[in-house]
Design goal:
α11 crosses α12. Helix content is about 45%, strand content about 15%. It is built from 18 helices and twelve strands.
Length: about 450
């Protein structure tokens, strides 16, 4: 059985608190609706009888008490016998069979006393009272017939109940709420236990055996709130924690090139939707802001979105490789709003992306660009089921793998690493995207900027 980190699970519970509360509200609503509109109210009326000595003596001996106590269990069975209940049904003209009435009648002795309680349930309060009193009367007559004794008397006659016995709104509301919370927590636990997506940075670090080149905090909410869309966040939010996260990745890459020069960087991922292009564009812009001449190439020839993110024309790489005329390379390089940053978009979707990326023309393009730029950043497609990034990984100085908290399956991330290692790719490390922002932390950095 997989070991569960309690702190990690509690953090997950807090994250899924809305789901747990939804379970509680739904369960409470269903239970309350059932109680108020679907559940048949049942009213309970009770009568009690007492066994006494049939002697006229005023004094009661211990023998009399012992005899009566021994008769209590026998009398309880007589009360629920066919002879008594069928006669009650006939006398009151009830719409009951013997079995149905027997289910609604309960008989109990009070401790070591000679008192017997007869409880009757019915959906009509007055009918419950009539049945309870009539059973007591018929039982007394039956005892006389069987034992020829007059040792049974009615102690308390049944009264008409005011409230339904099976509806307790306050108690049941609390019960439904507890059940709902339990179901919500159980559902969350099962999701947590069987969820194979990465849950935190520590898990990636422990199970991937690769350096964490940086973790990028989740900025999905701030993008929607401030309507940034596909804009470069590092440009529109230069003082944010997100900008600091990207700069940390840039710094870690700088420190990793102690023994070799890093000019070409491939950024890939395991599956679509992990934020690969988002990281690629912002990392390229970060290098450019650091007074480096940078070019970003959209090498995802199938689904590349760099042209949308940077708002440029989509006449790019596939068109250039297909024509093979490198003398016109400059015509496919586009400028953007960020100083020192140029772009080559993906171009039209070709029928043979892998062949284009494995061509001599593409390799020649990279060599030419390395001569003019400090950094050449390749936004590659996901590794899973596609050879494109594996092909390009042998053409670059370093490869970065982007993963996403709560989205990337750990098994696929491990397969991506293995696939890149199988082709001897120079893996620099992993970028962990969409790391949850801790509660109470404001997204913008508290540091002062000039």
């Amino acid at each position: 059985m997989e070991e569960i980190d309690l702190k990690e699970f509690i953090d997950y519970l807090l994250k899924e608190l809305a789901v747990i509360l939804l379970f509680a509200v739904v369960t409470l609503s269903i239970g309350t609706f059932y109680n108020l509109y679907l559940k048949t109210p049942m009213y309970k009326s009770s009568t009690s009888i007492i066994l006494a000595s049939e002697n006229n003596n005023t004094s009661i001996t211990q023998t009399d008490i012992n005899i009566n106590q021994n008769l209590v269990s026998t009398y309880a069975e007589i009360i629920k016998s066919k002879a008594v209940l069928n006669k009650t049904i006939s006398f009151l003209d009830l719409d009951y069979t013997f079995q149905e009435l027997a289910k609604n009648v309960s008989v109990s002795a009070i401790g070591e006393t000679e008192i017997i309680n007869i409880d009757v349930l019915d959906k009509d309060a007055r009918t419950a009272q009539k049945i309870a009193n009539q059973i007591a009367i018929i039982f007394m007559d039956k005892v006389k017939d069987i034992y020829n004794m007059k040792n049974v008397n009615i102690l308390d006659r049944a009264e008409v109940p005011i409230k339904a016995d099976n509806i307790h709104l306050i108690r049941e509301t609390i019960l439904y709420l507890i059940v709902g919370l339990f179901l919500g927590i159980l559902y969350t636990f099962l999701r947590f236990y069987f969820d194979r997506n990465i849950k935190n940075v520590s898990e990636v670090e422990a199970k991937m055996d690769l350096p964490i080149m940086g973790s990028v905090r989740d900025c999905t909410k701030i993008i929607k709130k401030e309507n940034h869309g596909d804009k470069l966040l590092i440009s529109v939010m230069p003082k944010s924690n997100f900008a600091e996260d990207v700069k940390t990745i840039r710094t870690n890459l700088d420190f990793s090139k102690v023994d070799q020069s890093i000019k070409t960087i491939l950024i890939t991922s395991s599956i679509p939707g992990e934020g690969k292009s988002f990281i690629s564009a912002n990392l390229a812009a970060s290098f450019a802001q650091n007074n480096k001449k940078v070019i970003l190439i959209d090498c995802d020839l199938r689904r590349g979105v760099v042209h949308k993110r940077l708002n440029v024309n989509n006449i790019g790489l596939s068109n250039l490789i297909a024509k093979g005329d490198l003398s016109k390379l400059d015509e496919y390089i586009q400028r953007c709003d960020v100083k020192n940053l140029d772009i080559i978009t993906r171009g039209v979707v070709p029928p043979n992306p892998s062949e284009l990326l494995n061509s001599k023309a593409f390799k020649s393009i990279l060599k030419l660009l390395e001569e003019y730029y400090d950094y050449v950043i390749l936004d590659g497609p996901p590794v899973t089921n596609l050879p494109d990034s594996l092909i390009m990984s042998n053409l670059v100085d370093k490869a970065l793998i982007v993963s996403s908290i709560g989205y990337t399956p750990l098994s696929l991330l491990q397969n991506t690493k293995k696939s890149l290692e199988n082709v001897h790719a120079p893996i620099a490390g992993i970028i962990v995207n969409r790391v949850p922002i801790k509660k109470g932390g404001y997204y913008y950095s508290s540091y002062k900027y000039e």
